[in-house]
Amino acid sequence: MSKNKLRIIPLGGLGEVGKNMTVYEYKGQIMIVDAGIMFPKNDMLGIDYIIPDFEYLRKRADKVAGIVITHGHEDHIGAVQHLIAEISAPIYATPLTLGLIEGKLLRNNATHKAELVTVNAGEKITVGPFDVEFFHICHSIPDCVGLGITSPAGLVVHMSDFKFDQTPVDNWPTDYAKLSEFSQRGVDLLLSDSTNAERPGWTPSEMVIGPAFDKVFAEAKGRVIVATFASLISRVQQVADAALKHGRKMALAGPSMVDNVKIARKLGYLDIPDDLLISIDQASQMQDHKVAIMCTGSQGEPSSIVGRLSAGTNRQFSLNTGDTIVLSSHPIPGNEETISKTINRLLRRGANVIYDAIAAVHVSGHASQEEQKLLFNLVRPKHFMPIHGELRQLSRHAKLAVEVGIPEENVIVVENGQVVELQGNKILLGERIPGDYVFVDGESIGDIDYDVMKERSQLARNGIMLIDLSVDKLSGRLLHDPEIITRGFVTSEDAEQLIPEVRKQIMNVVNGGGLDNEKDIINAVKSYLHQETKRRPMVFVTLSRG
Amino acid sequence: MSKNKLRIIPLGGLGEVGKNMTVYEYKGQIMIVDAGIMFPKNDMLGIDYIIPDFEYLRKRADKVAGIVITHGHEDHIGAVQHLIAEISAPIYATPLTLGLIEGKLLRNNATHKAELVTVNAGEKITVGPFDVEFFHICHSIPDCVGLGITSPAGLVVHMSDFKFDQTPVDNWPTDYAKLSEFSQRGVDLLLSDSTNAERPGWTPSEMVIGPAFDKVFAEAKGRVIVATFASLISRVQQVADAALKHGRKMALAGPSMVDNVKIARKLGYLDIPDDLLISIDQASQMQDHKVAIMCTGSQGEPSSIVGRLSAGTNRQFSLNTGDTIVLSSHPIPGNEETISKTINRLLRRGANVIYDAIAAVHVSGHASQEEQKLLFNLVRPKHFMPIHGELRQLSRHAKLAVEVGIPEENVIVVENGQVVELQGNKILLGERIPGDYVFVDGESIGDIDYDVMKERSQLARNGIMLIDLSVDKLSGRLLHDPEIITRGFVTSEDAEQLIPEVRKQIMNVVNGGGLDNEKDIINAVKSYLHQETKRRPMVFVTLSRG
């Protein structure tokens, strides 16, 4: 380990660098920033979600001085329960973020006690060798912060997810003064959100959603159902405002939505009068045009509320013809197909469906190119390291930095697990540590690896054939016809036609005396099936000699 | 069957209505428009491609008077080989489209002879009871036509994929005069492309790509590699123009690209001087900055040229640091993840990667909202039926028609397999016919159904466990320890830990005397595995009594 160097390690995030976690290390002392989850890609079969690899941290658990969380979205807090199961350190965050973490731990019956420490934007804490200044930034959730991290090796500004919204829903713009102050002190390194590095211009303010909702509420003849992420607290405020204005009551559906709203209201981050809120049961007793429902499931997942509404299988309430359903979110990359399918199904049920292609019912929470350039000019960092994006976004973000005047050799693009070392005027590549991610499937963590995933994909592509044989020990002949079943291979009718032929192939091997082991049969059957169907199912033989 | 009615049946296309095929029927006589394929969605595991369900046509094969193809893209010609294997009828198309069909049939060794009849834009043919006027429309392939279909039941204008490009690459704009002429005759029904019905404004002209390529070619220090669809003939022209201008030779990679360019040049649809073209081998002997390569694989599929370049496994040529690779296409919905992964890999290999988010190296070939509205005003149809889109795009397109003044009751939105009947002033819903699609996997067609797909998905989600038991016939006791293998379930290390416990569970059942059949064991193992892992693999037991 290099002395007097600040080591920075991005982790997690499915190729999105440092999306879910960034580790800061100085003289062996560690501070963790964020602990989030990612949702699996389409080719990660059967996986529930993904967490960063804690390998490096696990080995240095006693060196972790603290965990700092920048905001309350799942991709920043979702892995806290897993992290604190292995690493005991205080968690520092703003009130809303801590409230959401607490709610999450409760819902998941997290057994490990977390030490939660409230830090307000504008305050400074000490975490091991680091002085950490929390400063307010705008994003699509209130109470989001960036971090000014001072260590003997220099000053780092860590921008988490942000946008420069001049008219945010909570009227609390980004702390530009703080950014300028850092700039005057001299920023050695900036880490910043690359999500929208391919998007020119400025991201529209959350304010544009107001008029869009206004129009939807004014024109809707039936109920208005708005679906979004449970953690999009500011969207809840906007729907509540529209409901109030248009004389509708608002009901909430989805446990995480209900929980989060409760927490945000209690902490004063939502301004919703008590009598505006009703239960889903009360809503079902009212006239349709008096009701707004806010729910989760905007990504159209089959098991979500919107997914179930589209399939007609939601228990609490169902979709009526004439309902207006608003998908107030943008597809997470990879979810496009699912969302389209869901929209088609909702339309088929006679609903009026509003989504971001039709009206401005969603805006991004991330800075576009002009905002990213403004940030460079506000902070004027010596070095720049893009985070929160795949290599394509990071490369683009790096180019923007160079356009704005940061020397190319001072911009460092790395991937997860690559240690970056900062010392005074220099930024260098350190070693690589395990920076991959860990699959969570069911209750168990990490017992799925790439080999298992590859087997799943192979099973899925061509299915399986199972062959059960009983062979006479003495004569080597079959005691009865081979029993054969298939799954995921061909239709049962086609299997009926194929199986007699497969039996013949097996007979040929057995009677040809070539039955030294199951491999002979497997090979014969595989090559026959490939010749007939051009497919390669997994073939298994069980052989008993009686 | 209703007499004197024109019956119109959209088919094919994965929920994209009439995308791959539309059937016209009058007094039992049939004309087929287009015969294309679609590529599978992410949840269609192991499927190669999808063709329309020919069930209705198969039963009426002798009534099919002709097959009319509007243009040479895969989603309009890709299923011709399968169609003519079942239905014998002449194929009518423009010269380039026929050339591409011919090339395709040759490449696939199509054994069934096709009768190919050349029809030029501006000409009229008779197909059974239909007079069909071919008229030129702009799209991202030359020689594309719309159809004016006259039958005793009325005049239908069938707009295939189109855009109103005022400056197309081949200088041949849409035949506006013909559209106006139809309008004067009185159009009873318009069918038209809904692909971009959610996109406001005008689709940019193909011309904008010229300057974008110009910039790329001017700035590239190494080779320029441009990837696009093999059927995007006009893009080939644009790359050839840029290569010529910037003193580079052009090589082609990918058999379909090579074939298509040969056909298009022979027929005069590409203007490329002989000495501009070189082979890949020749290109590898030249200095990098003198070379442009045009290839397929712009969707980043692992087995495509670009996919292999990104993985370092392409045989003909590989990627050098400093090469500029241009992905001149837009992700087909569902391919976003694959393309992103490929872009990241190309960047990792040191290539400069240009795609549509970075520069205007691709524009859509489909009309946006303002063009769609212009079409309504040019054609002034009595009735309108949106095609080529999912329900979400069709609904949007229908709303645009109403905005422009077509009475709501004259707009009909249907899905594949829904018969629409036109008679004079009326448009009505007919019956539903099998309008689903047929999966093609390997060599075989249609032997994959939803049940097989469901099994594949189940295999993929949780994997399998196979248990082989030998039981003593007399005592009912196990002859040896159960043999257990898993695939796609847990890692081999975890399996090693789980399997002894599974054996115990099996012993409990067997020794408990409860071994009436394999079901008991399956149930015991399943419930144990679910309790331990919260997963539900498929469990199979083979049992032999010796």
Question: What does this entry look like structurally?
Answer:
- The structure is a homodimer of 546-residue chains.
- Chain A has 546 residues and is α/β, with parallel strands linked by helices.
- Chain A folds into three domains: 6-201 and 364-445, Metallo-beta-lactamase, Chain A (4-Layer Sandwich); 206-355, Rossmann fold (3-Layer(aba) Sandwich); 463-545, Ubiquitin-like (UB roll) (Roll), CATH 3.10.20.580.
- In chain A, 32% of the residues lie in helices and 24% in strands.
- In chain A, helix 15 (492-511) crosses helix 16 (518-533).
- Chain A is globular and about 90 Å long.
- The first copy, chain A, starts with 5 loop residues before the first strand and ends with a strand.
- The relative contact order of chain A is 0.12.
Write the layout of secondary structure elements.
The structure is a homodimer.
Chain A: E1 6-11, E2 21-26, E3 29-33, E4 49-52, H1 55-58, E5 64-68, H2 74-77, H3 80-86, E6 91-93, H4 95-107, E7 116-118, E8 124-127, E9 130-137, E10 144-151, E11 154-158, H5 176-185, E12 189-193, H6 209-219, E13 224-227, H7 233-245, E14 249-253, H8 255-266, E15 277-278, H9 280-285, E16 291-295, H10 305-311, E17 324-327, H11 336-348, E18 352-354, H12 369-379, E19 383-387, H13 391-404, E20 418-423, E21 426-432, E22 437-441, E23 444-445, H14 450-462, E24 464-471, E25 483-487, H15 492-511, H16 518-533, E26 538-545
